[in-house]
Amino acid sequence: MKKLVIQDVSRTFPGHRGGAPVRALQPTTLEVETNDFITILGPSGCGKSTLLRIVAGLDHPTSGTVTMDGREITRPGPDRGMVFQSYTLFPWLTVEQNIMFGLAERGRPPAEQKDVAASFIERMGLKGFEHHWPKQLSGGMQQRTAIARALANDPDMLLLDEPFGALDNQTRALMQELLLGIWERDRKTVLFVTHDIEEAIFLANRCIVMSARPGRIKADIAIDLPHPRHYTLKTSPAFSELKARLTEEIRAEAVLAAAH
Amino acid sequence: MFRPLEPVSPTTKTALGVGFFVLFVAAWSVATLGGFVSKTFLADPLTMLADGWALLTRFGFLHDIGMTIWRVVGGFVLAALFAVPLGVAMGAYKPIEALFEPFVSFARYLPASAFIPLLILWAGIGELQKLLVIFIGSFFQLVLMVAVAVGQTRRDLVEAAYTLGSSDAGVVRRVLIPANAPEIAEILRLVLGWAWTYVIVAELIGSSAGIGHMIIDSQSLLATGQMIFGIIVIGIIGLISDFLFKAINAKLFPWRLA
Ligand SMILES: Nc1ncnc2c1ncn2[C@@H]1O[C@H](COP(=O)(O)OP(=O)(O)O)[C@@H](O)[C@H]1O
Ligand SMILES: [Mg+2]
Question: Which residue, A95, A111, A188, B31, is most buried by CB atoms nearer than 10 A?
Fold first, then answer.
């Protein structure tokens, strides 16, 4: 079943102070099935964030439409949880209060808020840090809290914009496994933006490669690796083969992007 | 020791801070007690203390201090009560900002002290006039500074709140206000300091009580000891209110210091 349909969506930003307008995204069409884990791979500046923000309802397409379950997306909503690359925990709330934020905004009873927060604190390995301020957490923990905060709303779809981009390699690998574990259990529909090829293969059942600016979809590659996945998968021949293929796809784009 | 941005230890910091006060009083003592400056123009520290003691015990100076504090606090609280909500509304909603910002920017440059003669015409020389001076002096500054602070709220936090299901009102209540509360408290502290200068000016002109009134009275008696004592009292009250504000802020916003 089609969960999300992105139909001929383009985005052009008006030029600054009379400058030329910036075309960030060429008309793009993408259909996402329920429970898909789609990674969007591309060099920086190719419009990945722009596309994701349009799906989130934080930005509006210049042309085209995005529909979820047949309804057009016009504004952000708790049915689409988002995790940003920058650390966006509310600094004045504790870890627990951050996770409860969405439920509180929607007026759920306090007991339910507490229960949901407790279960995510457990699953995300945040036990003992419930009452810490975001400032007191490592980057990895902040992003785990941010994922928990988005999931606590029980969204249909999870949108992640390079959520592990600022983390070191070891932490990043652990976070990938954690996220994949959640998806294998809860079966959310996920759109995950990254510029890391291994990450794009390891997480996805479908990988979208985008071309350099102005962005458009260059390749749509099924990743038919078995689940559950374990980090050792990254050294398997099937994985290497996919990696070689995607590296080839993206290299040309990186060269183009660098020339800008 | 003298490297840019190199921190100093807490003891050194205290010692240096107190040290300068000592140095200041020492220089003042040498100038006055040593006979380098005429007593008519500048009292020495001992005379100042004796005059101050007499003021407090015999001339009801505590009542003056009380009056001045009440005027500052009264006028300031009144201004804050209106200015903070308006500032938040301007920072949050651009049409409201567009409506008021030009006028408030203009009004902020109108010197509160220049209104005193006009306010005396309108409101007499009673308490209302004093409160209005403080109000005019603080209100426009507060509005503008709060509006700027709220307008500069991190966009990504606002966006995160929307994706978590916040309504527009929810974003104001649950993001814009808590995110800026510490800064608003800091703005209040700063502007309260300015309010102190307005109150003294208001009391210098047409007043029968208050620290400013005592200072102008002492001038006609050439009582420089009393005048200096009055000025120092203002400084001390300022220091205390600053300290209180900082302590309250640290209590209210522990996440800032974490
Ligand atoms: N608000 C904006 N105003 C103008 N240009 C923008 C804006 N947001 C993004 N862009 C431009 O659009 C292009 C794509 O940006 P983005 O979607 O952030 O790329 P990516 O996430 O793939 O790195 C970039 O060239 C960027 O400079
Ligand atoms: Mg991006």
Answer: A95
